[in-house]
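#structure-requests
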Amino acid sequence: MNDSVPAVPVPEAEVTAVTEAADTADAYDPAGPAPLNVPHTPTGNPEVDARLARLADADHLATDGHVEVYEDVHRGLRDALTALDARPGPPAPPSSYSDRS
């Protein structure tokens, strides 16, 4: 008994179509970086707007590079928010406790 399968000739057109499909599949990388195109509405604060614009840098990076961008943006936004608390406001009224010795 012979278990071998006889070779079936494949037409040249089919070989070419399969080869072209494989080349196309190799060119498309679904895991590659792709822009998210998330709309960005300006806040009116140049420092905050610059940080939010930096998020677009993640569009050109692989996923493992996003963390660095997100952390940088988060740090900048946190610093901008902290700076709001540090800005001088109206002077506090004098305390009656400071005159006591």
